[in-house]
Description:
- The complex is a heterodimer of chains A (about 300) and B (about 300).
- Chain A has about 300 residues and is mainly alpha-helical.
- Chain A has 14 helices and no strands.
- Helix content of chain B is about 70%, strand content about 5%.
- The two termini of chain B are about 20 Å apart.
Amino acid sequence: MTKNKHLTNKQLSYIFIAVMLILPILHLCTFVLYVDVSTIFYSFQDELTGKFTLEYFSEVLASISDTSSGDSLFVAFQNTLRYFFAGVAIIPVSLLLTYFLFKRIKGHNLFRTIVLLPSIIPALIWVTAYKEITSVNGLLGKFMEWIGQPLEYSIFKNPDTANTALVIYNIWLGLAGGMLYYFSAMSRIPDSVFEAALLEGCSPIREAFQIVFPLIAPTIGTMLLLSISGFIGASGQILLFTKGANGTSTLSFFIYYKVLQDPTGGVGMVSALGILMSAVALPITLLARLVINKYLPEIEY
Amino acid sequence: MRRIRKDVPVIYKRKGKQKIVFGIALGFLIAYALTLLLPMGMIFLNSFKDSLTYNDQLFSGEIYKLPTKIIFSNYSKALSLLSVPTAKGDVKLPEMVWNTLWMATSASFISTFTHLAVAYVCAKYKFRGNAFLQGLALLLMILPVYGTTGASMKLYIALGIYNNPLGIILSAFEGFGMQFFVLMGFFKGISWNYAEAAFIDGGGHFTVFFKIMLPQAVSISLVFFVQTWLGFYSSYENILLFMPDYINIATGLYYEQMLLPRLGETPVYFAALFLSAIPILIIYIAFGKTLMTSMNIGGLKG
């Protein structure tokens, strides 16, 4: 490389590195690290006096232990767990669906387009469509009337069914969530692997479980780890369906909605709740990472 | 980058049990597709009904009936009726479209470019702190701190970027998200010989990045740009929180779902929803296949 009159190549490379990294590092320090540290800070600081306090943690813990109230954090925590298990449970279904599409099941192009629609079309459209079809006067209402069990309220407005309906909605519409990644990973498996499997007389099902899924294990592992690490922040389309009413809130929705309703107040409590959520998520994520790295290792091919 | 196969050839004929398994899968896919298309089809049909008929059918429990007369004017009405009151005055559709376009395009461009720049530098240059940055990015990805919304809000207010377009721009300079790891893997796969050759010809570090490395990353960058753009296009939760007066289309429709049905104009609201989906469908048609085959996230676990 030709040298600048005054600067060496090494110095020029440092200038290049600095120019490229300065804004992202400033962003990282301001919008991520500073915000993380101040969340910890706010959780221990009285909003009015600025003094150290554990009051917000007591408040959060009291609400989490309150099993009697339908709007307590205990219910939100239960719901968070429900969303998490639903999120993990759909991974194998999503994988299988992707495999069948990858193996060019009849109508695969059409199905691939349809199945991916929930990931593409805005949530508001889906929520409106499902609210419409499940309303008392919608198709579900008519069906329930026909079988002699008429609906009193829409299933998303009935406190007995709202939560289950929301979780099912999330499972159903979330099936395609990881498909983009699984499909891409499957597309990278060399043709020779499939040809060898064919020569060995391998059935498609055996091919799926003994060749394809193990070969895309790193992708499955990443998706699983992201699901587990994000489990405590799980939420669905609660704002659009119920705004957290009828016991449908999750921990992360609780935080979001509290800030939305009062942008300048209540930061202490939401921060304390966030810190407790992080403390729960930390060991679970580390353990999950150990297990995933052991059983779903990196594969070179 | 490894060549991506466009199609997987069917190199055997299914028979016996395989046919049954594939048949069950096909049945499931048909049922699944129907549960997606039926609700969507229903509101699509209802978007062509006149409001009076729809409201009559709503009370008589017959909203699933086909429209007797197709009312296209709901779509033109949707364009004129969309209006959301804010502290700065009513925001109408043209402003919503403008807000959507500038927010989605600028934030997606900045975010994609920043990820490219950071990933390239971390993949190709040895410097003090490189391993630390990569470790920190991984740590933040798999062990995020929760409940930061309140602190973020305080920061936005303190910096004066709450309800300010600058907030969208500044918060887009994120270079250490999941894309960082994917792009780092991509740049590691590109030979440094190209850069060496450019250096010999008198090129500098910026020339190598902009004229040699970036053109090779066009395809993967496009995927990330489109993905981020789609995310911003449909985003309403963060807009409600941090940019309450800069109503985009998604936020506008969020408000309209409460306003238009109360005015007895539900079919107009449905029409507005479908109008808002047109740009997304065009992008999906254009980039769907690329999106399906370009997302390699294996190996991000650290």
